[in-house]
Predict the 3D structure of the following.
Amino acid sequence: MNNSILELSTLPSKKKLGEPYLKLQLEAKTIALLPLKQAQEVIVIPAKRITQIPNMASHIWGLLNQRNRVFWGIDLANLLGLKPISPNLQQYNIAIIRVEEMSLGLIINEIQGVLRFNIDEIQSPLGVVSTNLAPYLKGCILDNSEVLLVLDPEAIINN
């Protein structure tokens, strides 16, 4: 019994593991990280569940109804100035984010799981990514020569 207690006490704390982030593929070579604490849920929905609203900005696709909640669905890549998601798909991947009392559905190409990084690994995005991305980022992380964009959910919702 004592050995089990010793083994448990030597496990690394969550702080050493880093904060969890949802890994999102926006374009073929563009990966973004969404803080998991602000991601409510991830869903795959048929295209017909998005109610289009005319005369909206091109990144705003329409309204979604999920669990008796209605919220906006936006094309995250398009908002960030990247290649928009094809409007002709049969279904879409959506990460629902929540900041305070506001929720928003981020329509994305692919959800690739969860990664952990320490906050001190986040660097300034200035000089690393284009200036149109910077207002929506907390920073970026260089991981194995790959630039991972760390999204700022509050900036995205307040757009």
